[in-house]
Amino acid sequence: MERPSIILVVAFMVAQLVATFIAVWANWSFTDIKGCGWKWAGVVWIWNIVWFFPLDGFKYALRAYFDPIQKRAIEELLTPEPSTQAQT
Which of 23, 25, 44, 56 has its CA 20 to 30 A from that of 14? Predict the structure, then answer.
């Protein structure tokens, strides 16, 4: 898989930080919205990070299952290579 460009990564990080600040500090009287505070923002961030890794693994497994070329590449990566050094 290709890595995303640095511009996309920076844009994503800025958007997440802005969304977090809005969620924490939003006290808008015209919509009756109150900020959730840093405690709940931290809970949401931890929840997202904890679930990211299992879902990312699941994504790679499905991609390997449905893409034969990717499946072969992963199998080669996971298959141990025999040692080429002579045993002493």
Answer: 56
**According to the model, what pLDDT value does residue 72 have?**
77
What per-residue confidence (pLDDT) applies to 17?
Answer: 95
- Does residue 19 lie within any of the structural domains? yes
Q: Establish if 84 belongs to a structural domain.
A: no
Average pLDDT, consecutive stretches of 10 residues, N- to C-terminus, the chain (88 residues): 85 96 90 91 95 90 79 77 65
Structural domain count, the chain? 1
Q: Domain range holding 39?
A: 6-77
